[in-house]
Amino acid sequence: xxxxxxxxxxxxxxxxxxxxxxxxxxxxxxxxxxxxxxxxxxxxxxxxxxxxxxxxxxxxxxxxxxxxxxxxxxxxxxxxxxxxxxxxxxxxxxxxxxxxxxxxxxxxxxxxxxxxxxxxxxxxxxxxxxxxxxxxxxxxxxxxxxxxxxxxxxxxxxxxxxxxxxxxxxxxxxxxxxxxxxxxxxxxxxxxxxxxxxxxxxxxxxxxxxxxxxxxxxxxxxxxxxxxxxxxxxxxxxxxxxxxxxxxxxxxxxxxxxxxxxxxxxxxxxxxxxxxxxxxxxxxxxxxxxxxxxxxxxxxxxxxxxxxxxxxxxxxxxxxxxxxxxxxxxxxxxxxxxxxxxxxxxxxxxxxxxxxxxxxxxxxxxxxxxxxxxxxxxxxxxxxxxxxxxxxxxxxxxxxxxxxxxxxxxxxxxxxxxxxxxxxxxxxxxxxxxxxxxxxxxxxxxxxxxxxxxxxxxxxxxxxxxxxxxxxxx
Length: 474
Fold this sequence. Notes:
By secondary structure, the chain is mostly beta strands. The chain has one helix at residues 338-349; strands at 3-9, 16-26, 47-50, 61-67, 72-82, 89-95, 115-119, 139-142, 145-148, 165-170, 175-178, 190-197, 207-214, 219-225, 235-241, 247-251, 264-270, 275-281, 287-289, 295-296, 310-312, 323-332, 364-366, 382-383, 388-391, 402-408, 414-416, 421-424, 430-439, 445-447, 454-460, 471-472.
């Protein structure tokens, strides 16, 4: 049976559905048993997430990284609903079940159908260019290497070295490609999210490419424009050319664009009408419109870029190479809301209880050990004609608990309350067995199972009445 902890998620600015929450850090209790933790499987197969304390109602999750010696991990979990007003959303992390030997993750189910590509870039040791969505937009590597991930704090520094990995490019010959696919070829609305880190500024006349898909003439690209020759910051740019050859560039800003080596989160989107938005990390666990945003954008929908290959880290002509690290690159075919993007930045910038600035959890908090969720009681003996009261208990779930009699019978004269109290005055001697179920506030349930649920009612013995020497059973 698995051990269980609750994860209580912060209220967000709006209700979010099917949201991909980041869970990560280094947790000693998630190390394997031989390394002082409780996990049984060296691949981390016996770590999973659920909506109930029994671990039966699995949430879709993706495991990007797991280190059995330290409990370092990177998971992405789809949360059905995150509330904007109380109560807080609560889920469960289950771990340490020796009977689990197969992988429970379902990585493509984490990302809703509007995500057309999601790249995490591996665990920091091995570069992984697999697309996590069901669209299979996997990258092919040309010289890129694995590096530290860019899941960062609001101050632009790495929260914890155990948080995932990124793709490192040398600025002269490294890039990756994605074969042409229908899911990446034509957009009306679009959102691109990214994390990036650059080691040096460069002139404003120079552009470095994060991604480009260039058809003829249609294309779209996410670029970085330098600013060293005018004393300004590196700036992101969304560049688009539509089917009629009309081109437009939408510049944005980076919160840490003037800080060499700092980590930046950014997102750009277009609403398919007239408006483009740039969002940046505000530095206070939220996002804000970048300087000059929103902007009027007159370019029509991005036309069909097929059969062009997508390039990441360079252009299709082998120019504008990117120097630095790229992490958490995502493309959606809708305009993501400010609330959604703020939560995306928040969950990965300042996730939970480990490695945050000042040690303060932001997006979620983790309880101490609360499970496994069990219901096991051995009710006390009763005496006929004598008032009786016994309170059943449960552990490992999220209180309050609701109890229900499921089979068997109580002694005549006793009643079973939903609070778990068995009370009354038994009238008939004998041995009475029964079973019950307990349900917690998150709708998880446990049964009395094989635990002895027996009330034996005896008559008064010895001196007669309740004060006699013992109980006799008839």
